[in-house]
Amino acid sequence: MTKALEGVRILDFTHVQSGPTCTQLLAWFGADVIKVERPGVGDITRGQLQDIPNVDSLYFTMLNHNKRSITLDTKNPKGKEVLTELIKKCDVLVENFGPGVLDRMGFPWEKIQSINPKMIVASIKGFGPGPYEDCKVYENVAQCTGGAASTTGFRDGLPLVTGAQIGDSGTGLHLALGIVTALYQRTHSGKGQRVTAAMQDGVLNLARVKLRDQQRLAHGPLKEYSQFGEGIPFGDAVPRAGNDSGGGQPGRILKCKGWETDPNAYIYFITQAPVWEKICDVIGEPTWKTDPNYSKPAVRLPRLNEIFGRIEQWTMTKTKFEAMEILNKDDIPCGPILSMKEIAEDQSLRATGTVVEVDHPTRGKYISVGNPIKLSDSPSDVQRSPLLGEHTDEILRSVLGFSDHQVADIHKSGALDPPQKQAAE
Prior knowledge:
Family: Belongs to the CoA-transferase III family. Frc subfamily.
Pathway: Metabolic intermediate degradation; oxalate degradation; CO(2) and formate from oxalate: step 1/2
Structural class: alpha/beta
EC number: 2.8.3.16
CATH superfamily of the largest domain: Crotonobetainyl-coa:carnitine coa-transferase, domain 1
Keywords: Transferase
Helix content: 25-40%
Active site: 168 (nucleophile)
CATH architecture of the largest domain: 3-Layer(aba) Sandwich
């Protein structure tokens, strides 16, 4: 069975997380991703957060599956020649360098276009054009500037960033869509183009419901927020709403049996209006179904603390899984708070390929995230990440068609090796 992106070749100049997330996804769909790395060093994450000495870190391996690695000194004249040949042979160049780095390498957009008019150049930047476009951006900076942090946390506490990497990995996913879209357009136009995803923009896209609420706020209080029911006035910006639901239905995280010792013994519970009567039956408050103080959503709003307090009395008598099983029978929206340990051990996620076990030649076996997007006619497999420069000679021969003599000359030039330090005189 042919993979969806088989035949597409990606020249991967990305590092750390945002870019590698993008190129790994394309590799899972069958693209030939050639990761270009600095000789002797490679992607900086190979050596970051190492749990095993002298072995590629999980930070690197979990973001670079299904790729090939070539080491190349792009400052070396022979290295520039090799890069030029790679640009001729590839469909997409992906980079997440700081602003202007690709230009300083001697490969601005105009030159790349002259080498290969069909080349798509895809870039991740921190900000789009504007006052901050030259600023360096990392995950948490993106969450803060994209509106996520200001709307995350509790009303009387500090803004918070989320543990989900919505700045880095989120923007990588956005860029992957942009690349596939540009590849499709190229089938009609025959031309390449530039694709850019700014991290601030990506975070804002994921936080769009809060931009929605900012506009609603101009027309009155946000009634689904807990502070409305508590009689606390709203300011001029969307507040932090704790664990309230963003979909307009009141929701809270509630304690379950074992919460005293288990930090994840909780369940998310939504008091959805269509199942209100079923909720009343489950928690043992049947009179609330007809009581004028509880029967309608509008009258429940000022009483949400009381209502969720009563629901929590019930959830505390059940484990989070017992509660979910009971509630799901009545279509009451809920979800257990799953720890990373529970997710790692979830056999259903293993069965779907969402969590996979990978064997690495120096690390051994480890688990990783698999492709989160499933295609019925294009199954994905997860292959281990490459060792630094593992495929250098293979790429020079099979992709660029260089002879043994040419490969030997490139090796002699030093373009594939770490720069030699000059001895002190």
